[in-house]
User: What shape does this take?
Amino acid sequence: MRITEIFYSIQGEGTRRGRPCAFVRLTGCNLRCVWCDTAYAFEGGTGMSFGEVVEQVERFPTRLACVTGGEPLLQQEVHALMAALLDRGWTVLLETGGGLDARSVDPRVVRILDLKAPGSGELARYDWRNLEVLRDHDELKIVIADRADYEWARAQIRDRALASRVAAVLLSPVHGVMDPAELAGWLLEDGLPATLQLQEHKILWPGVERGV
Assistant: This one.
């Protein structure tokens, strides 16, 4: 496996935000979202076996792990990694961009699936088959750059009844671009069944790009 970093921090996103979490960031991504904040994970990394990764993760005082990227599903070994952690009693979160087929992921894994809005620049490469097999413990994340993104997301949430199919639909403003208060106002105005998500790690450690 190619690993960009393994670190211990506060989970900054999703329904488990605020909890201590072990992060495994895999190297490589098939997408190039306009607002990407982890471009350093596109290449490089260190070669490790999934057993070595598990050994390092188990040193952290938590049983919550987040497998992220880049795009972790580019590496076939990620499935063995997640299974090994699950078998050891870990709760495993998988953050995936939605550009690859995530339907075969172990059903015990909590899939945090991006739904790419037009402002990402990658809507055309989205794999819509992933929405066909959403589980009630999965989460959907839509990054919002502007009003057009919001209106697109609102239509998807309503037309596809997304909020009834997952644990949460998370609307995340592009950090430093989209005013969170403005997005909150739109949510309140529409009564949309979605959750405003701020990236808590960026609030706690502003300006720190890696290891948070």
